[in-house]
Design a protein that fits this description.
- The chain is an alpha+beta fold.
- It folds into 2 domains: 3-161, Ribosomal Protein S5, domain 2 (2-Layer Sandwich); 168-288, GHMP kinase, C-terminal domain (Alpha-Beta Plaits, 2-Layer Sandwich).
- Helix content is 32%, strand content 31%.
- Strands 1, 2, 3, 4, 5, 6, 7, 8, 9, 10 and 11 form an 11-stranded mixed beta sheet that branches.
- Strand 5 (149-154) and strand 6 (158-161) form a beta hairpin.
């Protein structure tokens, strides 16, 4: 095997509670995460014409701010695998972006997990090393190595799978993007007292209890994100106004939002309606039971 083609699926945060600030400055979270069917595509080739230890990355699609150098998590993920297994390769990577950047849908983290998985296979490395490497690349990367439906606690490294039905959603991304660093710098733990009851929510997601899902679909970072990008609130209201929308919320640190719909048909209709209204990066998706898929 000298190449791997892999899909990296986006995620949403059904709910997100901030449970406290750590001594190291990071915040502890309690959040339910689920993969959705929007994906980036990666083709990773072990190329003998490229010097070992070198990653040549070409990015197609997405915004202009997606780096194609050592700042990209794809490159960092491959180098992390090389260091851990003690072997190097010359890698040529084609990354086709569909997941919006700085949207809270986990595109960069998903790509990192995909790149690590592919590099391990191409270098014949033990893939059990990947969970140890993942937190060093980003808080969401451990989730994307497991995928499906997971409760994430701590800074995202404590993962517990849970049973979830399949749901149909519409994603949209408010323009501008939200800086995660700026968001948490402006967040205060006592500024947003309404929180999801996650012990109730976990049962609601498994049983398709839409009223309880609606009540608990809360992201405590929304107010802070809206102060940075006011369009986040406007996009949530636009989703809520669509026929068949059960609830709408922000994913992660934004500026991406999602709406839950009662059927695939109504989600598709809402997607078309929101595009006509001029909303950006709108997509109808469903929840998935995996984060990565080798093609």
């Amino acid at each position: 095997m000298d190449s791997v083609s892999i899909r990296a699926y986006a995620k949403i945060n059904w709910s997100l509670n901030v449970t406290g600030r750590r001594e190291d400055g990071y915040h502890n979270l309690d959040t339910f995460m689920a993969n959705v069917s929007l994906f980036d595509s990666l083709r990773i080739v072990l190329d003998p014409d490229i010097a070992p230890g070198t990653v040549s990355l070409f990015v197609d699609g997405g915004s202009d701010d997606v780096p194609a150098d050592e700042n990209n998590l794809v490159v960092r993920g491959i180098h992390a695998v090389e260091t851990a297994c003690g072997r190097q390769g010359g890698f040529r990577v084609q990354l086709f972006k569909r997941i919006p950047s700085r949207a809270g849908f986990g595109g960069g983290s998903a790509d990192a997990a995909a790149a690590m998985t592919a590099a391990a296979r191409l270098l014949h490395a033990d893939e059990t090393i990947l969970p140890e490497l993942a937190p060093g690349l980003g808080a969401d990367v451990p989730f994307f190595l497991r995928g499906g439906a997971q409760r994430a606690q701590g800074i995202g490294e404590v993962l517990t799978p849970f049973s979830s039905a399949t749901y149909h959603l519409v994603l949209a991304t408010a323009p501008g993007g939200v800086s995660t660093k700026a968001l948490f710098e402006s967040f205060r733990c006592n500024m947003y007292r309404v929180r999801a009851d996650n012990n109730v929510f976990i049962r609601a997601l498994g049983s398709e209890n839409l009223p309880l899902i609606q009540i608990n679909c809360i992201n405590q970072l929304t107010d802070a994100a809206t102060r940075l990008v006011p369009a986040v609130c406007e996009y949530i209201k636009a989703l809520e106004s669509c026929h068949g929308c059960v609830c709408a919320s922000m994913s992660g640190s934004g500026s991406g939002v999602f709406g839950l719909f009662v059927s695939e048909t109504l989600a598709a209709r809402a997607c078309l309606e929101l595009k006509r209204r001029g909303l950006a990066r709108v997509a109808a998706v469903r929840t998935m039971d995996r984060a990565l898929e080798i093609e």
